Amino acid sequence: MTDDTTTDPRFAALPMRPGKIVAIHLSYASRADQRGRRPAAPSYFFKPSSSVAASGAAIERPEGTELLAFEGEIALVIGTPGRRIPLADAWDHVGWVTAANDFGLYDLRANDKGSNVRSKGGDGYTPLGPALIDARIVDPADLRLRTWVNGEVVQDDSTAGLIFPLAQFVADLSQHFTLETGDVILTGTPAGSSVVQPGDVVEVEVSTGALSTGRLITHVTQGAGTFDAAVGSLPAVDDLQRAEAWGSREAAGLPAMAPDSAPEPSPETGVSANTGQSAAHSPVLADSPVLEAASILTPELKAKLEAVPVAGLSGQLRKRGLNNVTIDGVRPMHPGRKIVGTARTLRFVPGREDLFTSHGGGYNAQKRAFDAVGEGEIIVIEARGETGSGTLGDILALRAHARGATAIVTDGGVRDYDAVAAVGIPVYSNGAHPAVLGRKHVPWDVDVAVGCGGTTVEPGDILVGDDDGVIVIPPALAEEVVDAALKQEEEDAWIADRVREGAKVDGLFPMNAEWRARYEAERA
Prior knowledge:
Blueprint: E1 21-24, H1 29-35, E2 44-47, E3 52-53, E4 58-61, E5 68-69, E6 72-78, E7 94-101, E8 104-105, H2 109-112, E9 126-134, E10 144-149, E11 152-158, H3 166-174, E12 184-186, E13 201-208, E14 211-212, E15 216-222, H4 239-246, H5 289-296, H6 299-306, H7 310-319, E16 326-327, E17 331-332, E18 339-350, H8 353-359, H9 365-372, E19 377-382, H10 394-402, E20 407-410, H11 417-423, E21 427-429, E22 441-446, E23 450-452, E24 455-457, E25 462-466, E26 469-473, H12 478-500, H13 513-523
Parallel strand pairs: 1-12, 3-9, 4-15, 18-19, 19-20, 20-21
Antiparallel strand pairs: 1-2, 5-8, 6-7, 6-12, 7-9, 10-11, 10-13, 13-14, 13-15, 16-26, 17-21, 18-22, 18-25, 23-24, 25-26
Helix pairs in contact: 7-12, 10-11
């Protein structure tokens, strides 16, 4: 292979002209959910090295076409060649990380049936650069990807949102062919990819901490010339291509599909665009207790629960025989803030190396929980009170906050403690710990009954928290308990006034018949 980097400006950001460019069809949860299908394993296509472009270059939208779409991506550049690389060693074969833009012309996509030879292989369709980040000094699970169109952020995700870890692509591809130094792997795009027009400017950046690739800039221009029907298929579009290129039917200006419309096949993978996601990965099941509880936790009930201290609710639950309803050992990271919401549960089991290998990577239970949490819900994590590892960090806290979650409660540790606190979503935890999940825990299941802080929490249970701690209320008892607690709060306030006036507590707290009669008379 000839090293063109010194003579060809297209490859100036790379160690050499890549022998292979391999791209992933679907890899981010946000994109998969947008498409309505979640792959069980990665699938790939090749792009020619002649499609590489440098930062600042132009890309032409061919005459007579309408659906040129950008896809901001993280590119891996192979440093050490390898064949049949074990997953545990795969990241060691990555030499550098850089920014990429996997442009595609949806007008030609259907005819390629997933190979993307013409739709993504055009000159300038793979901008890379402008700088490389040494893969040895980064955490592949903590890379941030952002894309701008005309200065506006349109994609902002991280490798925490991947269905499959980056190293898996390296290990998987090496099962089938030798990965050579300089080969490039494009690792897929998150939600937010859409159509661009001549005159638009697209920028992509990959960063981690203080390290950045810089912004990869591409100028979209109008091309000249037409396709020759005598030698190949002509560009053609339909509503499916328009919806997928723009990101949704709404963005494409199309009417919503009828609920009973038949699913359309996707040329990208051959999987229906409306099927392929298992119930276990669905954000909310139709008969979910979380939905049932959400209907019980009305704005009126929530307002009443916000008005009552946790201690008062605890007393009322005790009167009804429920003593084991406090999540013990957790303290608020944001003192002074009240939380009320319904439980969305996540269960960790004790760490075991083989189980973490099978359950810890990819779109694991932890990622599914943070992607599925909805507005007004509280993520409750069973970590068995184990404080020797983190159970979430700032990226997942950001995801929960962006989803509108009310709070996070974990009886384990939190890593990136200050950064999590800065996100602003209320968090109750057992303290800070810098270690990653795999040290003590295996993410196992979501939306199941869990044991958090010594009490059982079912999906849909109502949680209330303040500086005293967090309490669990069975939804069926919530109205009765809060009304009784409000009544007790009124009595306690009256008793406190009498104590301030000098009354003895004996016979007053709790009230005997004499004090009760006086209280009732004053209320009347």
